[in-house]
Inverse folding.
């Protein structure tokens, strides 16, 4: 039996550190992680690798149910697949454990999984509705959603050029103006017409 952990965060600037710590404390021998991958994404590379590697008697451990399934249906399909393949499952924060080789994780565990994942789906749907409503209000006031466009006339772009002209390296310029080195390169490559 191998205990495998799975951690996921939705954006690249989030990190899986807290999830990893708890999965390690739970005794996971190997932890798969998808960084910057939305839960609604069909393909999650490390989850796919873990699913291929699983064999009878293994245990999958997640920090919370919403880290695993895209939605309630997908989560239940995964758990059904675990049961059919003889794989145990544990969600640390939700307190859910299933074991196809024992009475643990029978009808009551499945009911709890369904309820918890349904509420998680409801929360995601409501967040999405609020986001769309906010974007509609912003549009009605003439504002566009998303990051503001940065042009060659922007203050940081001009400052980056001035600092480059003084002989500073892009990494140092980034520290001074508070951006990444990649952003400095983008600023320096902007044409001034």
């Amino acid at each position: 039996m191998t205990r495998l952990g799975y951690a996921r965060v939705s954006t690249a600037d989030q990190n899986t550190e807290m999830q990893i710590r708890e999965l390690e404390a739970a005794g996971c021998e190997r932890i798969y992680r998808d960084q910057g991958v939305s839960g609604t994404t069909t393909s999650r590379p490390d989850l796919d690798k873990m699913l291929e590697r699983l064999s009878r008697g293994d245990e999958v451990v997640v920090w919370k149910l919403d880290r695993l399934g895209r939605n309630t249906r997908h989560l239940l399909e995964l758990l059904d697949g675990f049961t059919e393949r003889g794989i145990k499952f544990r969600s640390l924060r939700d307190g859910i454990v299933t074991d196809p080789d024992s009475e643990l994780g029978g009808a009551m565990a499945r009911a709890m999984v369904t309820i918890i994942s349904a509420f998680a789906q409801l929360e995601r749907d409501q967040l999405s509705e609020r986001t769309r409503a906010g974007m509609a209000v912003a549009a009605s006031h003439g504002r566009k959603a998303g990051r503001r466009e940065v042009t060659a006339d922007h203050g940081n772009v001009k400052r980056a050029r001035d600092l480059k002209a003084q002989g500073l390296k892009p990494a140092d310029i980034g520290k001074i103006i508070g951006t990444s080195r990649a952003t400095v390169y983008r600023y320096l490559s902007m044409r001034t017409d």
Residues 107-140 form the longest helix (34 residues). The first strand starts at residue 3 and ends at 9. Residues 52 and 94 are 25 Å apart (CA to CA). Helices lie at 17-25, 45-53, 72-85, 107-140, 155-165, 170-177, 181-189.
